[in-house]
Every structure is written in C-alpha cells, then in structure tokens.
Amino acid sequence: MTTRIYLSKAEVTEVEEKFVLGALRSGWIAPLGPDVDAFEAEVAEYVGVQGALALSSGTAALHLALLEVGAGPGRVVLVPTMTFAATANAVVYTGAEPVFVDSQAVDGNVDPQLLVQAVDLLRAQGADIAAVVMVDLFGRCADYPEILPAMQERGIPVISDAAESLGAAIGGHRAGSFGRAAALSFNGNKIMTTSGGGMLLSDDLDLIARCRYLSTQARQPVVHYEHTEIGYNYRLSNILAALGRGQLSRLDCMIERRRAIRERYVEALGHLPGVRFLGRTASGRSDHADNCWLTTLVLDPRLVSATPTMIIEALAAQNIEARPLWKPMHLQPVFLHARAYSNSVSIRLFQTGLSLPSGSGLSDDDVDQVLLAVEACLKVG
Ligand SMILES: *Cc1c(COP(=O)(O)O)cnc(C)c1O
C-alpha cells in the first residue's frame, strides 16, 4: 500500500520540534507569552508592515479588520466570488451584506474593471459600501497596483485576505502589506502552519491596538475585569506561536520547494494542447511573484476530453488528492440570494480547473507518481 499523497500537507521538522519544546519548557503555556510577541515581530518584519496581531484563525483576523473599517448592518462589503467561504462568512458575522464580484481568467483573482464597475453601480443605487476585500487566490497577489488607487479615489478601504499568499509579492511589496489591514492564515494546509491560527497585519498601530483589545474579550486595563463593549476570544496561544516561529524560519525554503514542484509540473504538462497553468502568462509582470501555494491546471474542454472530475477520481483511485478550485460563493446555496457581479469566468474556472498536490513535503517520486497519473488521463482520447 503506497502512502497517500495529499494536496498540501503540513511539513514539520526538528526545527519546529525545538521551538515547541522550548515554549513548553519555558512555562509560558497559558495562553500568551514571549513566543507570541516574537512571532508577531518576525512576521511583521518579513512582510514589511508596522504592526501584527497573532490570532486563533485567519477568519478571526478578517472579522476584526472588517469591524475596524465599520462593516455592520445596513452596509455592504464587496468580496471576490472565487474564494474560500471564510472571506464571505466574516462579512456576515459583522451584519454587513457581502456582494460578490467575479474573476479574471488569467489567475482567477478578482477582475479589477468589474470590481470598479460594481462599486460605482452599487453607489449609484445608494448602497453604503464599508469596504472591499481582496483575495490573493492560491498564493498569487491580486492586482493591487490597479485596484488600490481606484478605491482610494473613491474613499473605500481595502482589506486584503492574504490567507493563501504569505511570501508572494507584487510591485516590490509583499502579500499582507496591502490595504488598510491584511489577514494571514496558518491553518493546517496553508503555506506555513501553526496547526490553526492567523494574523492581522497593518501599518496602522491604533487599529492593531484596538483589535488586540477586542480579541481578548474587550477587557479594560483594570484589575477588576471591566467591559464597556462586546469582545472576542481570538488570541493565538504561546505554544502555537512557537510552532509558527519554527515554520517561519523555514518559509523561504518551503516556498522554493513548492516552486520547484510547480516547475516540474509545467515542464511535463505545460506543452500539452488545451492545458494551461493558472496564473502563468507570457506577458505577466516580472515583479508579480507567487508563493506557489497550490499549482492549478485549467483544461480547455475543446482540446482535452478528460474533465477535472474524471482526473480527480482517477487520482483518488491511486491515493492521490487533487481538488477543484473554490466553488464560487454566488453559486453556494447559503449565498444564493446575495447580489453578484458575474462575468461567468469563475464558473468556467470551477468547471475546468483542478489543483494538484503542491506541498513542500512531496518527494520527487511523489511528483513523478502524480505526473504519471495525470498524463494517463490527458492522453486518453
Ligand atoms: C484559509 C482561508 C481563510 C481562513 O483562514 P482560517 O485560518 O482557516 O480561518 C480565509 N480566506 C482564504 C482565502 C483562505 O484560503
């Protein structure tokens, strides 16, 4: 029996063991401590922002960021439809209404023109827009150089959902440094992990301080537990922050490994008719570097008879995990009645795309095995 090949499995080494053991032995168990402070400082420096707040999840980071820009009942927040549900759920937690915007074909990120159109149309209809959330899909930065000035002109704050994109960059700035605030995720299958966790990043230290207070049950700085507003229990534990520090120390190596795996996929499959890799373009900006979190194929059904579903099933039969892109939010039963600005690109990507095993822990033999299985599917017909 061969071992299962996962889509994006967490990879931990003795480096992480040392950090976690150190935290356990330091006595800083419950719940904050020096590893939390150090983890925040190290991530802030890596990304290039002034402030960081370690939290229990990326979703918590999004929730707090949205509260800080005033998202709430009676207001709307624009969200890319091609994303994980957490982005839209966080909007709903605040009481605001998510309005979905479709993708551009090249990388699945939000279509900048459609986004600007949607903002202007909503405003013309009298909508009160609290914020726009951008998502860096599968580790590739959204088009911030185009979108940030357009939103600034309109006085709309941008929140960056960088849950998938730590280590990526565009225009010389790293993912997590764009907009009023950004959210990172350290969930189990992300580019690096704390087993579960997230971080809020911002250059606005007042925003970070307020979110720090909200994330610790909005406890006033007095001894007798005084509360003047509703807070949350959203902090990351010191033990998990230690794991995060170990992962961060190896992040660039893990990204390099993911990049090497992608290059092998591209080399083997990129020349096949009807096969393209999401986010790879001949005309792309050279300063748009993705972190290779997931490598995603898009198949042209006119040229390739195998469908993503067929390939995913064939791989599953060989104990290899592959999966479709995120199912667009405006097609999800829970958001069926939400407003959406669609150009049907996201639906097409959902129907014709699949992500291949991309984790940094994959061996060359694992990648060979995936390639053999995918090639067998693509050659049929
Ligand atoms: C993983 C993810 C999140 C949520 O992060 P958690 O840490 O799991 O809460 C949010 N947005 C996107 C785009 C994600 O991929």
UniProtKB/TrEMBL annotation:
GO molecular function: pyridoxal phosphate binding; transaminase activity
Sequence positions bearing N6-(pyridoxal phosphate)lysine: 190
Gene3D superfamilies: Aspartate Aminotransferase, domain 1, Type I PLP-dependent aspartate aminotransferase-like (Major domain)
Co-factor(s): pyridoxal 5'-phosphate
InterPro entries the UniProt entry points to: DegT/StrS_aminotransferase, PyrdxlP-dep_Trfase, PyrdxlP-dep_Trfase_major, PyrdxlP-dep_Trfase_small
Top-level taxon: Bacteria
Any GO BP annotation: polysaccharide biosynthetic process
Keywords annotated in UniProt: Aminotransferase, Pyridoxal phosphate, Transferase
Keyword Transmembrane: no
Residues the record marks as active site: 190
Family the entry assigns: Belongs to the DegT/DnrJ/EryC1 family.
Protein name: DegT/DnrJ/EryC1/StrS aminotransferase
Lineage of origin: Bacteria, Bacillati, Actinomycetota, Actinomycetes, Nakamurellales
